[in-house]
Amino acid sequence: MTTENGGDVRLAGISKTYGSFTAVKPLDLTVPQGSFFALLGASGCGKTTTLRMIAGLEEPSSGTVMLGDQDVTALPPYKRPVNTVFQSYALFPHLDIFENVAFGLRRRGIKSVKKQVGEMLDLVQLGEQARKKPHQLSGGQQQRVAVARALINHPKVLLLDEPLGALDLKLRRQMQLELKRIQTEVGITFVHVTHDQEEAMTMADTVAVMNAGRVEQLGAPADLYENPGSTFVANFLGTSNFIEAEVAGRSGEDLTLKAGDGKLVLPAARCTAATAIGGKVLVGVRPEKISLTHADDAGSIPDGRNRITGRVVDSSFIGVSTQYVIDSPLCDAFEVYSQNIERDSRLAPGAEVVLHWNPAHTFGLDAAQDIEAGAAKVEEDAAA
Ligand SMILES: Nc1ncnc2c1ncn2[C@@H]1O[C@H](COP(=O)(O)OP(=O)(O)OP(=O)(O)O)[C@@H](O)[C@H]1O
Ligand SMILES: [Mg+2]
């Protein structure tokens, strides 16, 4: 049931203000037809508001919403080729699963619904449950009913607002893959709102990271992760380590940087900051890119790697990996994740170590920003 063209969502200069408060700053965004698009951001950053403006449930303060070639800004929700699935799936409790899914067809006066409902239930793998009532299903099954109920209307775009928010972690993971499979099968545009970075990265082709009412960065998950354009994105998507450094020179494709009394190498192409000699740069490196070697074995580290020294202050064994916190003169809580293949038992708190990594895994950001941006918000979310 792939739709024809026209499932592009294009937002142009769209914004929303409540009194003097701006929930969404003027935003330009194109979601290509057939893509799985995630709006990711901390609580209150404007995700739901953006989604509701696409659905027509919220009137924009400025700007236009286009679906394909159609300007839908002035259309009421029910006239837009869009359906929404919310966190509370609000199934009809007195109707069985079959009738819940058939609802949209019956409302349009369609009498022979059996084939279509059957196909929809097969799509979400609930064919066997058709005659059960919603309360007889698990949370994940109910969520799939909600998806089937929305998809049976053949929307061009399906909007999902934290649809997995009520599920426990394991079921959430399962449903992420399930939703991704359904999207691939039906081929329509999904716009998925979440504050869970792993969820966004697992499911979406393209992720827009929102921060305080605007899109901070947009891209494919791996690209955002490997090439964050700001400390906010670097911290919000996973964990990053930052070292303050100064541009000392250039050698071929690389910048050489002075950090403390040491030297680091950064590919010039991976630096989004100005690179004039003497300029300040925040050097970033992800925890899993770093190797740890006990200081006694420092001689065995190959040449050409970036290296700094430090002392282990904490180590947590979490099964697939061990996560270390290292105190270094350049950064007081450097995080290093080591896969548990061959563990060096000397790497315990108090051990003197060398941290080293391939310079290609280094990125450089403008130093005039908050190193902690985005990090605290993740913790707030986790606590909430
Ligand atoms: N009707 C309203 N009147 C006033 N302020 C509002 C209204 N609706 C939303 N806001 C504010 O706009 C901001 C964005 O809200 P929105 O619901 O879009 O956030 P969100 O990113 O979806 O957050 P969450 O992850 O918590 O759902 C918030 O600060 C919120 O308090
Ligand atoms: Mg919301």
TrEMBL record:
Q: What is its EC number?
A: 7.6.2.11
Cite a GO CC annotation.
Answer: ATP-binding cassette (ABC) transporter complex
| GO function term, MF aspect, one | ATP hydrolysis activity
Q: Which CDD domains match?
A: ABC_PotA_N (cd03300)
| InterPro entries, alphabetized | AAA+_ATPase, ABC_SmlMolc_Importer, ABC_transporter-like_ATP-bd, ABC_transporter-like_CS, Mo/tungstate-bd_C_term_dom, P-loop_NTPase, PotA-like, PotA_ATP-bd
Report if keyword Manganese is assigned: no
List, alphabetically, the PROSITE patterns matched: ABC_TRANSPORTER_1 (PS00211), ABC_TRANSPORTER_2 (PS50893)
Which SMART domains would you find in this protein's record? AAA
List the NCBIfam families.
potA
According to its UniProt entry, the function of this protein is described as: Part of the ABC transporter complex PotABCD involved in spermidine/putrescine import. Responsible for energy coupling to the transport system.
| Subunit | The complex is composed of two ATP-binding proteins (PotA), two transmembrane proteins (PotB and PotC) and a solute-binding protein (PotD).
Per its record, how is this protein called by name?
Spermidine/putrescine import ATP-binding protein PotA
> What organism does the record attribute this protein to?
Streptomyces sp. NBC_00119
